[in-house]
Amino acid sequence: MIILILNCRGFSINFHLFDWSKRTVLARGDVDRIDLGDSFISMEVPGRAPYRQDSECPGFGAAVDLLLRSLTHPQVGPLDRVEQIVAVGHRVVHGGERFSCSVPIDATVIEAVRRVEALAPLHIPPNLAGIEGALSLLPHIPHVAVFDTAFHQGMPEHAYLYALPFEWYEKYGIRRYGFHGASHCYAARRGAALLGRSPAACNLVTIHIGNGTSLCAVRNGRSIDTSMGLTPLEGTMMGTRCGSIDPGIPPFIMQADLISPRDLDKILNQRSGTVGITGVRLERPAFLERAADGDPRCLLALEMESFRMKKHLGGYAAALGSLDAVVFSAGAGEGEWLMREKVLDDMELFGIRLDRERNRAARSTDREERISADDSTVAVFVIPTAEEMVYAEEVAALLNGAAEMTTA
Description:
A hairpin with a 3-residue loop joins strand 9 and strand 10. This protein has 15 helices and 14 strands.
């Protein structure tokens, strides 16, 4: 059962090819600079040297074509022919209220996703472009949409509703949806496994720290609250997003500076967060290096990030009632010991005691590690995310379900 997973983003596609019958990765890689010029593919196949090929990709259809040609390249690809792929899974950032689970993609699903584009304007267009490109090249196999928001669809009303006129929810679907669902799902499952328990028998807070950051309170394997909301803008401070702010600020600044709603949306999503505080757009390692060198703006941004994350963590510990583990995941969550240390400092009240030496040594992106002290009543883990495994599992489950229905 060979499954292709596509995660289509602004100007790139991240892809994984699985032999799901063996739970092995046949290939992984990225197509970068789509629509920008100087496009290229980079690919890793186990047991072979890394592969890179420059090839112009004027759109996502061309990018999918490039990766399919690379996967079947006689010298570097793991496949003999494209027909070996039995299904394609597509990460879709927002499913609105309609989609609480993964679904086979058809024209109705595409139109439904298009209707929630305003809720994730940076993500939905490339998601749809990748779907349409892959459908045109692989029209005779199932394509499955796996939604970031689906994991959070079981949240109770009191957690997902906003204190706004109720008719806004009824008419426009304004509510908390949450994001990074596959990452939180994977982190919660692995956290439970490291505790030696079933996911249904423990409470965790999972923390996804990447370009976007979100926290999730997971009770008995289910999301009961999460920091992102109607859009990925809400929650804790992020690289370019402001996170939660006083809702009076947008109308105030729109009137004061005569800013249009569209321009303000760009500022809040692309020119706020760490970028807004430091005034410069830096790669994460360069930002941390400047902070370590004493740059006052970078130090301030780091303190703001960790302080807001700590508040969310404490709030979710209270909401869960009892806490068994905290899990850090995704790029910065896995690699940044300083951020983790600042978030967990002085959290003994919640039963969290950090082992500083373990934490500083835990910088791997391919190894699960416990960084809490031996006497900590709450375990703290660093777990490299593997959300693509969740996507593939969802696709395989739908394929197996369809096969069972056919057999029946």
